[in-house]
Each structure stands twice: as C-alpha cells, then as structure tokens.
Amino acid sequence: MERIATTVRLNRSVLQFDDAAQARLEQYLAESASLLEGDPDPQEILADLEQAVADQCMRRLRPGQTVVTLAELVPALEEIGSVQAPGQGPASPSSATMREASPPSWSLRQVSQGAVISGVCLGLARYFRLDVTLLRVISVLLLLGTGGAMVLVYLGLMLLLPYAPLEAGGPPVRWLPAKCRAFMEYLRAKLGIDRPGRIPA
Amino acid sequence: MAAESKLAPIRKGLLEFLVLKIVGAKSVYVPDILRHLAGTEFATQEGTLYPLLSKLRREDLVQYEWKESDAGPPRKYYRLTDTGRAQLAALDDYWNLINRTIANFGH
After folding, report:
1. A84 Cβ partners below 8 Å, 6+ apart?
2. Is A86 in contact with B76 (Cβ distance < 8 A)?
3. Which pLDDT value is given to residue A87?
4. In terms of Cα–Cα distance, which of B14, B34, B32, B79 is closest to A81?
5. Are B53 and A84 in contact (CB under 8 A)?
6. A90, A91, A185, B78: which has the fewest Cβ within 10 Å?
7. Which DSSP category does A39 fall into?
8. B64 to chain A, closest Cα gap in Å
9. What does the pLDDT read at residue A81?
C-alpha cells in the first residue's frame, strides 16, 4: 500500500502531509487568518504560526517517519492553540460596541472610517447615538421624497462638517470616502474655508 | 466559578507585562518564553504569544534577530528595545505602587 502525501512549505520548513492532515492544516491556517482580520501585520504572525506547526510536527515524527498524519498534527495544533488577539478586544467591533466605546461628547463630524459616501450619516449616527443603517435608510427616503434636494443638503454637510480623526485599528477608509475627503479638502482650501466647519466671511 | 471570570481579564492584561519582563531578562525565542510561563497562572500558547509579540514589535518595545539553530531552521530571538526597557521600568514601578496600595487597604 502506498500512502499519497503532499509536500507543504511552512514558512522555512518543508514537510510531507497526508490528505487528512493537510486538510486539517489548511483549516487551521484559514481560521487563524480570519481571526487575525484587522491585525495590522497578519502575514508575520501567520509565518510564525506556520513555523510553529512545522517545528511541533517534526518533533512528533517517529524516527524514520516522513509523512505527518493527524496523529502528529492534532496534538501539535492543540499545543499551539488558536489565535488570540492581544489586549484590545475583538478585532472588528460591531457598531453597537463601537458606539459604547465612543467618548460621550462626540462633536458633529464626518467619519471616514467605515463610511459609504463621505461619512456624514456615520457622523450623524454617532452624534445622535442612532443606528447608522436607520439613518442611511432615512437619507435615501428623503432623497427620493425631496426629488433630489437631499443631495444638496448632503453636499453642504460634506463641505462644512469637520472630519473625525482617524482611529488606529478602526475600520478602513473605503475608496469613495477617501476621494470625497481629498476633494472636499481641496475645495475648502480653494474656497478659503481654512477652518473646516466655518463659512467664509 | 464567578471569580474566575474576573480573574481572566487580569491575567490577560498582565501577560504583556510578564512577556516584557521575560524578554528583558535575556534574549529569548518563543519556546523559552512558553517554558518560563508554563506552570504559572500565565501559562499560554504560541497562538496567543505570536500576535502579542507582533504587537509589541510594532510598538517598538521588542525587536528580534535571526539566529541559526543546531536543529531545524533559524530562530527568532527577541529582546527589548530602549523604548521597551523604559516601558518595562515604568510598568514595574507602577506594579509596585499598586501592590502597596492594595496591601494598605483593609487594614
């Protein structure tokens, strides 16, 4: 009987895994990658974990054994344990926990991180402690109900509301909010709205 | 146990302090750190330690260098940076202060 094995490169080590062990390994690495979502440097940690798996498996191979099976991999993964993000709570807080964690005195600002267009709704939601989805739905209804006049209101707020400072570890700024922000900052400079939020004299 | 749910976050918060202490004592690689912590209340696993070390490195508290090993691939040896050393000293002082405060209450 011949057992078919796959050669797997784990960071700096190369090992042979049988099918079952390889499937379990892939599952563990995929889980780790998803647990590290939001970490600024997941590649480094994943490389370290791969090396740990390789070292642990090699230590467990019997003399003469060349293929890693579940008998070695399962206790190895148990010893390594699943990925735990350090200190600062879950990697991607839900909107509810984000609101709780916010300081009580939010001033009215645009929030670029996690925004869809420019962060006006997100800023209003934080200020009034409302669900951002609810505010977005209301905005769309107003847009339809006012025959588009809502666009002007939104543009006005975009131009005048200051931006909330970017939070480290917060959600990323998407493409459109980044473009809006860059354009508004350009426009403000052009119009002489040097201090955001103040109307030029 | 009710107390356990209150103790777990304390341990979690102090793990970083302990890792700084271990790395501060001498240049170590991850299995050394695990060995130091094993058998204490702070016993932990590589799955916890690597993300923590990555965070400490980003905060410029630790740095590592590659060293050849007799068996297997080169290993990462961690040591404190100057910033790390300063922060460890500050944490140590604060820890002593807290200890005194706690000891002085209830007497």
Report:
1. A35, B47, B48, B51
2. no
3. 56
4. B34
5. no
6. A90
7. -
8. 12
9. 93
Distance CA A162, CA A119 (A): 11
CB contact under 8 Å between A13 and B45, yes or no, is no
Q: How many CB atoms lie within 10 A of CB B79?
A: 16
pLDDT at A98 exceeding the cut of 90: no
How many residues does this entry show for chain A? 201
In angstroms, what separates the C-alpha of B47 from chain A's closest C-alpha?
A: 4
Q: Which member of B51, B53, B73 has the closest CB to residue A84?
A: B51
Q: How far apart are CA B3 and CA B11, in angstroms?
A: 13
Residues of B in contact with A12 (CB under 8 A): 73-74
Write out residues 60-99 of A within 8 Å (CB-CB) of B: 79-87
Q: Is the pTM of this model over 0.90?
A: no
Question: Using the beta-carbon criterion (under 8 Å), do A49 and B47 form an inter-chain contact?
Answer: yes
Residue range B25-52: mean pLDDT, rounded: 93
